Amino acid sequence: MLKHAVNKWLVPCVFVLSAPVAFAEAPNPGELIYRQTCSACHATGALDAPKYGDSGDWTPRIKQGKDVLVQHALNGFNAMPAKGGNPALSEADVSAAVSYMITSVKNDDRVDQKDALETQKQFFRRAELGKPYVYPMNEQGYFVPPSIAELPNDKYGDEVRLGFKIFTETQKYAARYAGRGMVCSHCHLDAGRKPHAVPLWGAAGMYPGYRFSSDKNDTLEDRMADCFRNSMNGIAPAPDSPEMRALLAYANYVSKGVPIGVHMPGRSFPDVDYTGYEASPPRGREIFMKKCATCHGEDGQGAWREDGSYRYPPLWGFNSYNKGASLYKQRKLARFIRANMPLGQDFSLTEQEAWDLSSFINMHERPKNPAKGILQEVFGGGH
Ligand code: HEC
Ligand code: HEC
Ligand code: HEC
After folding, report:
1. What predicted TM-score, i.e. pTM, was given to this entire model?
2. Quick one: 370 exposed, middle or buried, by C-beta within 10 A (0-12, 13-18, 19+)?
């Protein structure tokens, strides 16, 4: 408890004092090690080393998984010397350098391997029983949800279309429950259809299910109510309210064909490893100014459209998600950012950059967790 209280007050002070001087030049640790040791061969492809940024060189190697790559880099592999010939490097150094190199090529296969493997196992088990799962999927193996345009023009179609509108224009179609500007699809991208952005089709088949945070069997309505309360900083609609019924209809519609109880590849967002380095808010700030501020604003407050809705949502402050939200957890925010941001450049950031950004964003003030009293907020930390 004391530790939390100390962190809570100390961290922002240190940050304010030291930000512009101490850390301003510090690059990502992986990048630093790459530049000092690995670039000798990997920048040019000397000795047939896989070249930085060349996806033809890296993609087949990445398929082995990051753990294998790190082992090869640590112990040496053919003409690749152990630790790149620099025995002073620690395992965390080498791992960070490998991360830095493999994220130089856009390839999201690697991050989904564990997911995909688990699903594959389930598929084989089913196949042995003569009942394989069949669902529409794209080339990467992700579920393809049916489109809104295919909906019939009847009462059911209207219900689903209303759910879609609530999901994408929450402030307009569920005004009495929405908070101060967020909408569901700000985080659940492509109207809850994009893999790795917590798609609705990854959720629908998994509820009701036990959740640690609520310590009970939650329905899909319970889960959505949580996002209303915390991610939206709004009010939870009752399970039988018209808004919740419509959202449920929409969630089930975009999940048409998903097998029940199967952890679909692309559910939630892929994990990020601990890199062996502290997350650094000042370094996060620097990356933020370069890669995020163009849309979210230097003050992180986003930008409005003429009709008063957000074109770019705020990342902290009065209108943002509150301290009870999933994204207020350092690791979850890092996972979301790496898989989805900057918008349109999925998996372009290194794990370290995602951690740095997450620590920078979540150290700003935002609405309190409505489930906690003021004293708990101060002494218990917001998490
Ligand atoms: C002296 C040149 C040289 C240096 C310095 C060097 N590498 Fe390599 N590296 C190679 C070569 C050559 C290969 C290809 C080996 C092969 O596949 O036969 C390679 C391959 C790799 C691979 C792929 C291994 C696989 O299983 O496909 C990784 C990962 C790697 N290096 C990481 C690093 C890291 C991290 C550093 C810096 C700490 C580094 N390398 C420094 C020459 C070098
Ligand atoms: C600020 C970002 C944000 C907003 C806004 C938001 N959510 Fe979420 N939502 C999340 C995160 C993060 C998770 C948890 C992902 C995890 O831990 O796997 C989540 C989880 C969910 C889940 C469960 C997903 C699963 O796979 O179990 C559902 C359903 C959901 N949200 C619906 C909604 C609805 C409906 C709205 C709008 C009323 C909404 N969310 C608004 C971030 C957000
Ligand atoms: C090209 C514009 C653009 C850039 C650059 C960009 N974002 Fe976003 N970001 C968006 C949009 C738009 C959304 C909402 C999603 C939607 O509406 O499709 C969003 C949503 C988010 C969210 C979830 C919603 C919220 O308000 O909490 C986070 C977190 C986020 N971005 C962080 C970042 C970070 C960190 C970077 C830099 C690495 C970044 N973004 C760069 C446009 C951008």
Report:
1. 0.83
2. middle
